């Protein structure tokens, strides 16, 4: 048999059912002993372990901090699923290396300057009625005040919006309860305009603020021209949260420099840290964004700076839409309870959490019961009259998350390195759990929505001291998963993360996400529209216009069309690439060596790369994803020649070619292999049809993918036959080889479909049958017997029927085969296989189970 065919048949005919490895009694104890694990360790491991193919209950989107990305992982397994490129170029995804993603990245230019990183802090998921709807993810960049929008249908960044008046922005992104707006607060106060203003005029010309970005939840777009900014005092606005339920329509933002201190170590002033924490209290900003949004519709109410509508403090105050409430000094988190009534602010420099009551605040506002005014004329509400109460939690309380239990709240203690569980209604501390070390944010499951799910809290730690292998002075980050389903918390597992600081993370129930697996053919994935470079099979071309060369190329397993491109040095080369695949996970990557371009093309995607061919020479280009067995062959050449140079021909060195007889022999052989391969494919197709593959969606999808490949064969066959007619056997062989490639790809997916189908249609094994299958494998039977096939021993399908009183016969034979060596039937078998059935010393129970297993084999005999 031909080598190629041989490999393929092994693939196709090999058993579709994989035997499971199973561990014997005492194995668990042995592993625990060898690895020094306690019983609790094993329980924790079991609580977080996902067997192969298993899925997580929750999906987490974590800020990638200074890496400018978003990290996606599963809970409880803590397995990383993706890094979403946002503010930073990311080569694997082609982000920033192809023209379309570059266009998204460059939306983030500030005043014409390209910015290639971000300091991401707070991811947020879009909401409906305060619950996560799983459609969009927003995240802010503190360093360069920007918000990015990520589409959760394909986990790609679609928009980056620059805040044109802020110079930094920490307190974003926070969705309002129906995703009407995204809240973004400035951090470091600065002039709204882009001019120089001396620091001595800080109080007069530096400003804080909160931008309300209008959001279109259908299109997933921030609408800049419908957004507005509320001017605020230069108090260093920190974190925000949107009101919900009873407090819907209002926003809350805390701050930490009501002193308006501006430092000056170099002129002999005490440093910022001393001056900015001098007062006992700072201010919680309370604003009616719903009312302000209405005001922002009338020109009389705003001014425009750098294209941003600004509502002045004066206007906001005149319309009873902006208030201040004292809060303990240098606070950090501000978090609104699921019903919107309790607003918790943590001290950071204070050991208390302060719980404000919305109904009390609202009453003070409605009755204009003010305790005073700040220097900018903003009414101040009395702290005591606004408070529900305060609780002493420990050192350095920062952030809060809610659980599904009424009143239950979890707070991170930065200095104490603990998570504390308490009740914001009864103001009682319930439990504390140590973490390693210095937790910042913590992440509950939908823990900041109107419908928290409980179960887990993730502690997002700033340091990883003592936890992992030393990898040098720069340690990984450490996410620690804590089980909160019991009366007390239990730390389950650590996950090191080698990307930037994980400020905040949001978790959502996995079933709320509905990402797709392929695009409509020719999609520009960044806009969702049809790409101008969309190219279908047969439409590939190279267009020249002066020094501009535009290439319309396609990629499909396993070739790039075109495969040869010659341009003149200095030409501007634009290459549109379309991935023609519809098969799941058949991504092709693309690069041209030396030219610093890269694209990742998911099935159906079109994208563009562009470069100036300023280097003379020969440059291979190739597919960068190992997409098939012929992946290495998925390549071509870019040849850049200097039009002003004369090149000497190497024609006289040309190599010898094959004789006519040799060619004919090779052609015949190739055709014969293809015929035999096709027969194998037909046998798989027959199996699939007989077993009703189209009743199972996953199998049906795979079969569709397989036939996508198979359907390309007639066109290639036509080309091969034309070449034969024209007497060009060389070319005919190449086309026949192309047919073989398509067949291999068909078979590859076809076998996957067959495997999947067998798993679906085989009857479920009873516990006894399962044990029997195990005993069959472990007892060594499978060394000689392959179910469904004659191998070193007979096929055991139907063995129970082959003998009178079959079950007893089989049991006797397994237990004492020597006794039956002289039986004429057995004798014949021994002669045929040249082997004697050995005594495997099976126990009675094992023998019983094996017989049960044989019954299962017979029931499913048609599948083997
Ligand atoms: S911040 Cu980092 S721990 Cu930017 Cu929300 Cu509090
Ligand atoms: Cu396509 Cu490798």
Ligand inventory: [4Cu:2S] cluster, dinuclear copper ion
Task: Please give the number of β-strands.
Answer: 42
How far apart the termini lie comes to: 23 Å
- Give the DSSP E fraction (strand runs of 2 or more residues): 25-35%
Structural class: alpha+beta
Helix content class: 10-25%
The tally of helices reads: 19
- Which word captures the global form? flat
> Sheet bearing the most strands, described?
6 strands, mixed
Radius of gyration from CA coordinates? 34 Å
Q: Strand order, biggest sheet? A: 8-9-10-11-16-15
Low-confidence stretches: 1-20
Mean pLDDT reading: 92
Question: How would you describe this protein?
Answer:
With 864 residues, the chain is α+β, with helices and mostly antiparallel strands. It contains 19 helices and 42 strands. The strands form 10 sheets. Strands 8-9-10-11-16-15 form a 6-stranded mixed β-sheet. A hairpin with a 5-residue loop joins strand 1 and strand 2 (69-75). Helix 11 (660-690) runs parallel beside helix 14. The two termini are 23 Å apart. Mean pLDDT is 92; it is low at 1-20. [4Cu:2S] cluster (CUK) binds at residues 121-122, 170, 239, 332, 398-399, 440-441, 503-504.
